């Protein structure tokens, strides 16, 4: 059986080490796995253990990639799955998403709520646009409906009013068409007109 002859910290990732068996590179693993398996120089490595180490290496790389994606912005589980599938197999991705979900780092319900609130405030989206965006992110229909139903009726009106303030449209007819093109429904447009007239 090959013996573990060298354990070296990786220069590109401080959380990982490279393992060498009989002087040749074997695989990389994270510190947690290294400590958990209590690997020491001179340990004999069975083929079963080598296979396990290589699987852990792949799992670790997938997890690190997912964390990097999450550092840019929150992601839905579907988005992560799609992005990770370019480099990793479905079983590895499934394990990674389960691990992230258990740690609370991936949560489609929280993602949907944050997405809706952020898009209402900064992009002034209609609920129709928000529903379409969440579908595109792979959020389940029931979760989309639950998230949208928690919005106050005034939230979409405020979003439409914010859009109008930035618009160059002046006539009522053009404003109605402008809001309709952006997915706002008749009742919201009527309420916007009522509030504008009351100002």
TrEMBL record:
Segments forming domain RecX second three-helical: 107-146
Keyword line: Cytoplasm
GO cellular component terms listed in the entry, alphabetical order: cytoplasm
Pfam families: RecX_HTH1 (PF21982), RecX_HTH2 (PF02631)
Gene Ontology BP terms: regulation of DNA repair
Subcellular location: Cytoplasm
Superkingdom of source: Bacteria
Gene3D superfamilies, per the entry: Winged helix-like DNA-binding domain superfamily/Winged helix DNA-binding domain (1.10.10.10)
RecX first three-helical domain boundaries: 62-100
Role of this protein: Modulates RecA activity.
Classification via PANTHER family: REGULATORY PROTEIN RECX FAMILY PROTEIN
HAMAP family reported in the protein's UniProt record: RecX
Family named by the database record: Belongs to the RecX family.
Identification of the protein by name: Regulatory protein RecX
Natural source organism: candidate division Kazan bacterium RIFCSPLOWO2_01_FULL_48_13
Lineage: Bacteria, Bacteria division Kazan-3B-28
Gene (name only): recX
């Amino acid at each position: 059986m090959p013996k573990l002859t060298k354990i070296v910290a990786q220069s590109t990732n401080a959380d990982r080490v490279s393992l060498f068996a009989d002087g040749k590179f074997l695989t990389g693993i994270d510190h947690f796995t290294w400590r958990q398996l209590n690997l020491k120089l001179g340990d004999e490595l069975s083929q079963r253990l080598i296979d396990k180490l290589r699987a852990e290496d792949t799992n670790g790389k997938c997890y690190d990639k997912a964390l990097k994606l999450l550092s840019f912005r929150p992601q839905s589980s579907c988005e992560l799955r799609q992005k990770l599938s370019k480099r990793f197999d479905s079983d590895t991705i499934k394990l990674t998403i389960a691990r992230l979900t258990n740690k609370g780092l991936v949560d489609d319900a929280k993602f949907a709520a944050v997405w809706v609130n952020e898009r209402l405030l900064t992009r002034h989206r209609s609920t129709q646009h928000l529903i379409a965006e969440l579908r595109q992110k792979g959020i389940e229909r029931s979760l989309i409906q639950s998230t949208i139903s928690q919005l106050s009726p005034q939230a979409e009106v405020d979003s439409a009013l914010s859009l109008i303030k930035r618009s160059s449209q002046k006539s009522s007819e053009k404003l109605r068409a402008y809001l309709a093109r952006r997915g706002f429904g008749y009742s919201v447009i009527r309420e916007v007109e009522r509030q504008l007239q009351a100002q």
